[in-house]
Amino acid sequence: MKILLKTLPVVLTATTLLSTQSVLAETIRVAIGTQDTTINCATGGLLIRELNLLNKYLPKDGKYKDVKYDIVWKNFTSGAPLTSEMVAGRLDFGAMADFPGVNNGVAFQKTGKQSVFLSVLSGSTTGSGNGIVVPLNSKVQSIRDLKGKTISVPFASTAHGLLLRAVAAQGWDPKRDVKIIAQAPEVAGPALKSNKIDAHADFVPFAELFPYRGFARKIYDGSQSNAPTFHGSLVSREYAQKYPEIVNAYLRAAIEANQLIAREPEKYSLLISKVTGVEPEVVYLFHGPLGLQTRDLTWKPEYRKATQTAIDTLKLLGRTDVNLNVNQFISDSYIKKAFASAGLNYDAQLKNYGKLLLVANDALTHQPIKTFERVTQVWVRDEAKVRSYQNAENAFKDLKRLHQAGKNIRVVYIQDRNSGIKLLANQAWFATDKQGQINGFLLRGNADQWAKAHGGKVYDFNNAQKLVKAG
């Protein structure tokens, strides 16, 4: 009996310890807000989720040894509701553009809390990505033709900032010389189709998506404003200070997502399209080599400037009266640590302003492509890789062969000869020179100028193809 009395407490103690460990095992929420259809946020949300990259990097030792992770994903079509969820404490991370990002910082500050702009995901130091479109059959050829017209835009968005700068650059009063109305892209699309608006300004990917779908035409690219723009990742400062290792894991996942899409842009453009409904041809326009924007996770001075511009513009619009300190709002310490833990050189990337390189042989001549100002690309349906060509002449010659063989062409791209941005060729204008070389342009006016200066002529896409004979 004495033996039973002595051994019984030992058995109970062991059982109690196991039960206590189970109850005390901490569950940490990792709640991430995404904007899937804003496709240049993909490496900070959609791809991490779809490829299950976060689990790969979440800490599992030290103070996190017995932790269980509750990973929550929630998708939004814009930054404002995402911010509301973050401020309410229902999300920890979020991805959005510079203007909504500033609104995020302001909203946190008004509640006595703070958010942190962690990293850039994708952007353009010249402003490409935002744009202005008009109905397909509109007579408008450039922003100069919009005086006195009705232009819609998602209010307080990065595209709103672009529109205000573009109007100011014309010397116009935004309250008298144009009529600016608030309109989300899902409303603007039908409005463009029915000619209820004269123009629409929008962010990624709508200034390309609407033209690709055939009911709009792009007449202004953000690069014409030379005003930097970007999308990036944010986190609650309280969360980041409590769980810096989890922030590092999230950024490591974003880095890997960025590397994956750089290696296989066609493959991941198809995946992004499958999830979002945004056509892969439009996704590749942004994420492929020589694309509209660069996927750059570093805090270049231009992106810091874009954040300050967003603060100043929102104050001008009367959207905020809060003083948000850019140098406190933006923190590069987390992304620097993530780069270091990934074995990458942050300082070297900070100095790198190049787009994703095109490393390819000309699909017609099979010679390495060495110059890129006239690069033309063709994506053939059911082909895993986009075909690249040194110039439009080679591409158009091969296009004739492809058509004769009954191939289905997804899309043709060409680089703008002036700005270097990637264009949908069927929406571009083409100008020749005395040697018959074909150059692509977004704007008819730029094509006219080139042709006049170089002794050539201007053509639309269909007639430009006729200049080249099948060989």
Molecular structure report:
The protein has 471 residues and is an alpha+beta fold. It folds into three domains: 217 residues, Periplasmic binding protein-like II (D-Maltodextrin-Binding Protein, domain 2, 3-Layer(aba) Sandwich), CATH 3.40.190.10; 94 residues, Periplasmic binding protein-like II (D-Maltodextrin-Binding Protein, domain 2, 3-Layer(aba) Sandwich); 90 residues, no CATH class. 41% of the residues lie in helices and 19% in strands. The chain has a five-stranded mixed β-sheet, sandwiched between helices. α10 crosses α11. The chain is globular.
* CA-atom Rg in angstroms: 26 Å
Assembly of the depicted chains: single chain
**Coarse structural class:** alpha+beta
* Model regions low in confidence, pLDDT < 50 over at least 5 residues: 1-23
CATH class of the largest domain: Alpha Beta
Tally of discrete structural domains = 3
**Total DSSP helices:** 19
What is the total tally of β strands?
17
Strand order of the largest sheet: 2-1-3-10-4
Reported for the largest beta sheet, the result is: 5 strands, mixed
Integer average pLDDT: 93
CATH architecture of the largest domain: 3-Layer(aba) Sandwich
Terminal CA distance:
103 Å
CATH superfamily of the largest domain: Periplasmic binding protein-like II
